[in-house]
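WARN no homologs supplied; continuing
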Amino acid sequence: MIKLFRIQVLNTEYKQYAEKNILRKEVQYPSRGLIYDRNGELLVYNQAAYDLMIIPRQVKAFDTIDFCNIIDIEQDDLVKRMKKARRYSRYKPSILVSQITAKQHVAIQEKLYKFPGFFTQRRTLRDYRHNMAAHVLGSVGEVNSRTVKRNRYYRPGDYIGLNGVERSYEEVLRGTKGVNYHLVNVRNQKKGRYKDGALDTLAVRGKNITLSLDSKLQAYAEKLMQNKKGSIVAIEPSSGEILCLVSSPGYDPNLLVGRERGKNYMKLYKDTLRPIFNRALMANYSPGSTFKMANALIGLQERLITPKTEFKCYGAYTVGNLRVGCHHSNPFGTDMLESIEHSCNTYYCNVFRWILEAPKFGSVKNGYIAWRNHLLGMGFGKKLGSDFPNELPGLVPSTAYYDKTKYKGRRWRSLWIISLAIGQGELGATPLQMTNYAAYLANRGYYYIPHIVKGVEGETIDKKFLEPQQGSIDSTYFKPIIQGMHNVSVTGTGRFARIPGIEVCGKTGTVENAGQDHGAYMCFAPVQKPKIAVTVYVENSKWGSTYAAPIASLVIEKYINDSIMPSRKYLEKRMLEADIIRNPVKDKNTGH
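OK structure emitted
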């Protein structure tokens, strides 16, 4: 009697086993939210898929050859999968084979009575309508064990956003799961709802989101970067909305969907061109000459120079044995506008030293701290706080960094870090940061945190994206900077970026590299009420004027005019056909 009492009342194992034999709990996976571009173009939607589930305790002897032929797996693989399922739980259902085809689903359903302990479960897979914007959209894949332990919403076999927008807005896009309870017979066939569905819950689909991305501009920018390594980022200065974000080479986002996802991922991972690496958010380039306006602004703000301050340039900045070469030369004196227009290194070496050695700061170290704080206000040296999950902060070294490396307890000297004057040395910035810097200049002293999502169904975006981030430079000091940048695109180093009818303000740059240098160009347009800020990096192209500047100008023209004028079709053709990966740029002086 005591033993029967224990079995029937105290021990719930047999009751659970009986319920497992007659009940099947099926999770109802919600459809993920759809993703649209800023103009309402559908970019990401869902397609039906099925997972083959297993409840190990209910499995009986079955024809493994027939089973494997239907779902197209090897018998050894089947044994491994079944062992893994048993280790997870003998009573709880888990995925045996994910994402079987519709044809396989129909075939297994017809013979399900032969395979007790198995059933299929419907879910959805992502479908990316266009072969573009893979680094923006991201991908969805199976959740790992760490996430399962950390977040009770997920179970083994569930899908989760792994990167890009799919990851950043996972909780918005995923929706809410539902559950259905079915009565099943000895043949594992459904016989009806348990308690007439009283315990069932409905799945709630994920919310749709609208990106700030302009899909037409994105597609065009990706074409311009084909057969090139580098990045293009475009931002609307008045809002911080990202209009396009290109990392090249890229890949088709549909490669990371379905049962071939793992195999395709390994191919991309092993590719020496690193298509998975998001250069726009994670490449830490030196700013190069595009950084010079920042030094000019700091000098103006600290009232150490004026727009008319001149420095003589003899083709290099020299102090003792130190020599910093310069492609510009004016022994009569170069002022601020000319220094920007012709990218004079000598001018900015002098300005940088004047800032760090200014008597008002008391020491070079204190001068560096003041200089660095101004840069942080422009968005350098820190994460901007965008809605991308893998944004990197770039680098503006702290004084502690230099105390441990260059100075090591010695007195600070400005000459030891003079390369910072021209955007080289230890400085690092991502293309996203550089475009934000262009937007900061366009707005004359403030920026909006760059973001890719424009709206969420039934919600408002984070308030931080709507608040201007004010820098430390007064707006009155931007006029000569803007004029100098405009001169760059008219008669200076960026004249190849000139667009008839559109006033462009820009700056070319050469980024030092162990091999061939990289070319860079950052700009905004029009001068008054700017609509777009753009940064282009083309790796191993040596000069910013050769490829980066023309590409940026084409992106601007495409966005503002929606087409390229006939007189500039030759330039478009040259950029589209340029193949820097197979035909590297030769080392010759074609511009700066």
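Residues 208 and 532 are 26 Å apart (CA to CA).
OK
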